[in-house]
Amino acid sequence: MSYLRSDLPALSNKYYFNYGGQGPLPKSSLDAITSSWLKIQELGPFTNNVWPYISKEINETKSIIAHFCGVNIRRVCLTENVTSGCVLPLWGLPFSKEDRILISDCEHPGVVSACKELAHRSNLKIDILKVQLLREGDGEETINNNLVVQNLEKELKPSTKLVVLSHLLWNTGTIMPIELISEILSNHKNQPFLLVDAAQSFGQIPINEAAKKADIYAFTGHKWAFGPEGLGGAILSERVLKEATPTLIGWKSLINEESIHNNNPNPFHSDARRFEVATSCTPLLAGLRSSLSLLENEGNGIERIKKIKSLSYKLWEKLRNIEKLDLILKGPPPAGIISFTMNSKFSPKEIVKLLGKESVWIRVVEDPAWLRACVHVTSTNEEIEKLATLLEKITN
Ligand SMILES: Cc1ncc(COP(=O)(O)O)c(C=O)c1O
């Protein structure tokens, strides 16, 4: 058993396939959070003695995230979750009336509704980029990037100002060619910004090139990175830092709090802190650092995705042999997300409940209502066997 798995209390009493919803938190990360909380009380909580500790925690964490994503630390903005990592900079982009947003048909409801509301308030138009049907196995073992590009080029208009696309689609489990798309956008007349939802990629697949190229690469620690809930962030491009204005403004966005008294026309940080807001939960930083370090002990990004793929392939193969189960990916999964439907007298939600009674946890993703099972480096053959056996039983 890997050290990481043995450090996950959540996995000691269940068969877990919901990494894409929330990853389990290692005991040592929980201990790191508690120690940091205690340290803050010993030093402060609101004293001159505690500020250097808090600054050190923030800088150390940002520096590790910058290294993890292969970018300069000034591009790292800390937020609470993926959605605020997407939405805070999104609302500050320099849109003009009648500009268009191109959003994929596989984005998360929170991000979609933020784009719709923004379009409504700022008089923008929304177009849809179709990627849901472009999946592994539809004639090719791996997704044909040309098809994504073809659809992108079809939908890009002269006034498209923003493209919104996930790196790894949360429902189909397919990886999008972010670097290629970024290149196409930079050659487009209007040079649209590229917002990438990295909820399912951060901690699961190598992300350096995509994080470097996207304008907004928004992630969270609490899914595939085994971090605590409540801490995420966004990697912002130099162009976003220069052209986007802060949105939810607070003292953390300011160079210093006194600057508001001397009518400084530009009181905001020039780096990604311009999108940070105010007091946040410092102890979570130690938790995320601990989890990222445990994750890296399991192998580098390439080694980890290799292991994830070998496990997801096993699950995919087993599910493929269940007669009344229909896999969404017709070819081997490119990462750890496997979605499927079942021809059963039970609804997807009932199936989740039935499995839960046996301590097996998967979920239903909405629209389309597919069942989704995720495997990670900590998954085991025993878990895979258990899930497949139960699903087979449910269909009989
Ligand atoms: C693709 C995607 N985007 C956004 C979210 C929302 O995440 P958060 O609650 O961290 O904002 C999720 C959560 O499942 C997701 O899968």
Poorly predicted sequence stretches spanning 5 or more consecutive residues: none
CATH architectural grouping of the largest domain: 3-Layer(aba) Sandwich
Spatial strand sequence of the major β-sheet = 2-8-7-6-5-3-4
Q: Figure out the total of helices.
A: 13
Helical fraction: 25-40%
Order of helices and strands: HEHHEHEHEHEHEHEEHHHEEHEEEH
Distance linking N and C termini: 33 Å
Q: What is the structural class? A: alpha/beta
Mean of all residue-level pLDDT scores: 96
Task: Please provide a written account of the structure.
The chain is 39% helix and 14% strand. It has 396 residues and is of the alpha/beta class. It has two domains: 3-25 and 300-395, Aspartate Aminotransferase, domain 1; 51-294, 3-Layer(aba) Sandwich (Aspartate Aminotransferase, domain 2), CATH 3.40.640.10. Strand 12 and strand 13 (370-374) form a beta hairpin. The chain is globular. The model has no long low-confidence stretch (mean pLDDT 96). Residues 21, 81-83, 108, 110, 166, 170, 197, 199-200, 220, 232 line the site of pyridoxal-5'-phosphate (PLP).
Descriptive labels:
single chain; 396 residues; alpha/beta; Aspartate Aminotransferase, domain 1; Aspartate Aminotransferase, domain 2; 2 domains; seven-stranded mixed β-sheet; four-stranded antiparallel β-sheet; 13 strands; 39% helix; 14% strand; globular; binds pyridoxal-5'-phosphate
List the helices and strands and how they pair.
Layout: H1 3-6, E1 15-16, H2 27-43, H3 51-69, E2 76-79, H4 82-90, E3 100-104, H5 109-122, E4 125-129, H6 145-155, E5 160-166, H7 178-186, E6 193-197, H8 208-213, E7 216-220, E8 232-236, H9 238-243, H10 283-297, H11 301-320, E9 325-327, E10 337-342, H12 348-357, E11 360-361, E12 363-365, E13 370-374, H13 381-395
Parallel strand pairs: 1-11, 3-4, 3-5, 5-6, 6-7
Antiparallel strand pairs: 2-8, 7-8, 9-10, 10-13, 12-13
Helix pairs in contact: 2-10, 3-10, 4-5, 11-13
The structure holds pyridoxal-5'-phosphate.
Residues 21, 81-83, 108, 110, 166, 170, 197, 199-200, 220, 232 line the site of pyridoxal-5'-phosphate (PLP).
